[in-house]
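Final report, section 2: Outcomes. Of the targets proposed, Prohead serine protease domain-containing protein is the one most frequently requested by collaborating groups, and we therefore present its record in full.
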Amino acid sequence: MGWDDGGLERKFHRPERGLSVDSDQRIAGYASLFGATDQGGDMVLPGAYAVSLASLKAGGGAVKMLWQHDPAQPIGVWDEVREDDRGLWVSGRLLPEVARGREAVALIAAGAVDGLSIGYRTKRAEKDGKGRRLLAEVELWEVSLVTFPMLPSARVQAKADAGLDLIGMLTDAFAEARRELAGH
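The predicted structure is given below as tokens.
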């Protein structure tokens, strides 16, 4: 990827309840589900994110929202990242001031991008008798919007009206820019 990830791992997931984007460019969904074995043979255990999330909060840090795990492409902010009984829930905003953020809204609305992926470092894990790696503690760094999630059975859906709102905004902005350029 062109950057030293220092052992950073990634897990992809398509939330079965769906990732939605609304007219305010807000998205929400599960970035990870407890007890689900991914294509890499890993299973995240309940409580695996607790220490990392508490440490980030205590230090004033935040889990980053990236495009396809690229640290040079932040596309929004996660306003809420929490564990519940199902997994890792995230809720945040795509930033319309960022070109890739606008593109992400359109791609989600069209169904071209439909996954979430976590970037993390394993702190504690063990193997079970079935050949799986059970992740007991991870240091969560980022949650990305991605094209290919690790759990193919989970699906992401988007509200079509959000994509239409964005397309309308972009069309108006380009028309205004053309008028400005033509006038000068």
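The chain has one domain: 9-183.
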